[in-house]
Amino acid sequence: MKEQLIKDINSIVKSLSNKDEIKLGIIIDKYNKLKELILNNQLNTNIVKGSVKAYLGVFSDYENPVLEQMSLMEKNIDVMIQ
């Protein structure tokens, strides 16, 4: 599961990096930090919770497929830390 989460995080970061990185910098930083926490077995909180809402606060791009990936990641991290 850990390997798949890392792949998914990399995919999300890549998709977000195709947009305005300055506006999405905090969200991208959170996903990179999440990857670090997972790799170091230090995950104890969902630091990306609310990232979909934050993205939509910057871009009204409700049809962007990355939103589904981000939402699923939030749910998977919640399950992982329980």
**Whole-number count of domains:** 1
User: Uncertain regions: pLDDT < 50 for 5+ in a row?
Assistant: none
Order of helices and strands: HHHH
Tell me the strand percentage band: under 5%
Distance between the termini: 15 Å
Helix content: over 70%
Helix-and-strand structural type: mainly alpha
- Number of DSSP strand runs: 0
Largest sheet: none
Key attributes of the depicted protein:
82 residues, mainly alpha, 4 helices, 0% strand
Can you offer a commentary on this structure?
- With 82 residues, the protein is mainly alpha-helical.
- The chain has one domain.
- Helices cover 72% and strands 0% of the residues.
- The protein contains four helices and no strands.
- The protein starts with a helix and ends with a helix.
Summed up:
This protein is mainly alpha-helical and 82 residues long. The chain has helices at residues 2-17, 21-39, 51-58, 66-81. The protein has one domain (2-81).
What's the helix and strand layout?
Blueprint: H1 2-17, H2 21-39, H3 51-58, H4 66-81
